[in-house]
Design a protein that fits this description.
heterodimer; A: about 270 residues; alpha/beta; Glycerol-3-phosphate (1)-acyltransferase; 7-stranded mixed β-sheet; 9 strands; B: about 325 residues; Rossmann fold; two-stranded parallel sheet
């Protein structure tokens, strides 16, 4: 018995397998899609994430039904916490919702494909290299895509900068306009406290070829996470100058900021 | 009154290869074919003249004088894993240039050129479903892929300079199946195959019969241009090896210099060090444009391809 089938037999109950099987994905005859997503690995990942989501971070999720049941969607969220845990939790929230679950794809840093084992594993669980071509092709495939327009500026931010949104890139708005994708803003609260970093050793990061080298305890704290999904936003595809695109991006950023404030006000304690 | 229509005269290069022979078998009933290969002279039946000629030799032009060709199907390229860099350059670039010059000189109306997906290059930042318009990064990654990219550049120049040649360039994914002797087919057919530890890039495979169908379609339907040829099915490299019954031999993959040194020392023909990145990073091409323009649907699924390799591990 291979490791994969052993883990699947141990971890994946029949109900969960049925839940994932009913989410339709454009995959080939051997269960893969062009980006490396694999249904069987996803089942194991989904099962492990459930413990993380329900027991470790005890996620409180509000408004996940705001994500349309079909069609191209960009789920735009604030990024935080050194590791891409926020993407994992948002993905699980959408894949596990009662009605019309969807298996969203997360765009990841360009650094990950160069890491042995991890790069492939992330791909198999639906993560995709953060390249505009990839995002465009997935939206054309009617996928839901999780994007963090702050990029590493967001995930690598220090604890003292928590919940301050960094600059948003405009790329996601161009893609949403071109592919008529719905934008669903999400405010993530709690991931900032999961790996609090007090400094970033830039020379070390440069030497290792990684985006940042945080000074933090080697522990992921079980901070309670609040996910607030906002109302869907639609932007037409008329030709507009870049300034107006930036204004549209600012609208999304403002919506996320409001959702973060909502999450912070709902939060009773850190853990 | 009866009119006799002239059968098309076609020159097929690379005749010693399994793919060319499949193409020849599909066309021989309604075309007059002439087969050429620079490696060896192959017997293809009494109805098909077969020659062993280097394209760079002057006698090659005699074929054009003698047979009055209408079209050329250029499959005779040295694969990226064969011979030396210099010999590949001479055959693939200079030889192809001679072929295209002669095609223009003798008024050929249709040319199909076989290229490879290697021209895109394997880099960590490759998006999936690469379009034909994507930059060709192959030459920038290894001097050993320069001939593949240069062959394409050459075909492109002739494509716009001599529109009457009606050149179609095909960039197929991994061609596999019975008789195929390229590096990936050798690996799938072997008992043990090297893998880079922790890397299992997505790959695409097309059966040799499907590829032969694609070439014949490309020749018959006159849509000049550049097209990727790949089925809409994907599999990870290590999974493909497992399905073919290959035992995987992991090679340490970090730091990147280490596997390169190991592969250089091993000198495996099927896994040369300069093709190492194709076993590390995915190069997934988008074949939908070809499928739509030529109404092409591959018939052999991946499972059938891998079953062939699994069941033929120990030839009698």
């Amino acid at each position: 018995m291979s490791l994969r089938s052993y883990l699947k037999a141990k971890l994946v109950p029949a109900a969960l397998e049925a839940q994932i099987t009913r989410i339709r994905k454009p995959i080939g005859s051997l269960g893969y899609d062009p980006w490396g997503y694999n249904n069987e690995v996803m089942k194991i990942g989904f099962s492990l994430t459930r413990h993380l989501y329900e027991k470790y971070f005890r996620v409180v999720c509000d408004g996940v039904d705001q994500v349309p049941a079909e069609g191209p969607v960009l789920i735009v969220a604030n990024h935080s916490g050194q590791l891409p845990l926020d993407g994992v939790l948002i993905g699980y929230a959408l894949a596990s919702r009662e009605t019309d679950p969807r298996m969203p794809r997360a765009m990841i840093e360009r650094f990950f494909p160069t890491v042995p084992y991890l790069g492939n594993l992330l791909n198999e669980m639906g993560a995709v290299l953060g390249d505009p071509t990839n995002c465009a092709k997935m939206l054309a495939n009617n996928e839901a895509v999780i994007v963090f327009p702050e990029g590493i500026r967001g995930s690598g931010k220090l604890y003292r900068d928590r919940y301050q949104l960094k600059r948003f890139g405009n790329g996601f708005m161009h893609l949403a306009m071109k592919h008529k994708a719905t934008i669903v803003p999400v405010g993530v609260v709690g991931c900032e406290e999961s790996i609090p970093a007090i400094a970033n050793i830039k020379p070390l990061a440069k030497a290792l070829g990684i985006p940042y080298a945080p000074v933090a305890l080697p522990v992921v704290f079980p901070a309670k996470v609040h996910l607030n999904f906002g109302a869907p936003m639609f932007f037409d595809d008329t030709e507009i100058p870049e300034e107006l695109v930036t204004e549209r991006v600012e609208q999304v950023k403002a919506a996320i900021s409001e959702l973060i404030d909502k999450g912070l006000s709902e939060r009773k304690r850190l853990f | 009154m009866t009119t006799t229509t002239r059968r098309p005269h076609i020159l097929v290069t690379g005749a010693a290869g399994a793919l060319a022979q499949q193409v020849i078998n599909r066309l021989r009933d309604h075309c007059d074919l002439v087969a050429v290969d620079f490696r060896e002279q192959v017997y293809l039946g009494d109805d098909i003249p077969s020659y062993c000629i280097d394209f760079n030799k002057r006698v090659f032009e005699d074929l054009f004088r003698r047979y009055d060709f209408d079209g050329v199907i250029h499959l005779g390229r040295v694969m990226s894993s064969q011979l030396t860099r210099m010999r590949r350059y001479n055959a693939n670039v200079l030889g192809s240039q001679k072929l295209l010059d002669l095609s223009h000189k003798y008024g050929i109306k249709r040319v199909v050129v076989l290229s490879t997906y290697h021209v895109y290059g394997a880099v960590a930042y490759n998006p999936a479903l690469i379009d034909e318009e994507a930059p060709l990064k192959g030459a920038g990654l290894s001097a050993d892929l320069i001939d593949s990219v240069e062959l394409e550049n050459l075909a492109n120049i002739y494509l716009w300079r001599y529109p009457d040649l009606n050149i179609t360039v095909l960039r197929p994914c991994n061609i596999v199946g019975p008789g195929v002797r390229n590096s990936i087919s050798t690996l799938l057919a072997s008992e043990h195959a090297p893998v880079l530890a922790g890397f299992s890039p997505m790959m695409q495979f097309i059966h040799i019969n499907d590829m032969a169908d694609a070439i014949v379609l490309a020749y018959q339907k006159n849509h000049k241009g550049i097209y990727n040829v790949a089925p809409e099915d994907w599999v990870a490299y290590q999974h493909a090896l497992a399905l073919c019954g290959c035992k995987r031999i992991p090679i340490p993959s970090i730091p990147p210099i280490l596997p390169r040194l190991i592969l250089r020392a091993l000198r495996l023909r099927s896994f040369p060090s300069y093709l190492m990145d194709f076993f590390k990073y995915p190069v997934v091409i988008d074949g939908r444009s070809f499928a739509k323009a030529f109404n092409f649907t591959p018939q052999r699924p991946l499972k059938e391809i891998f079953r062939f390799y699994r069941e033929n591990k120990k030839p009698i």
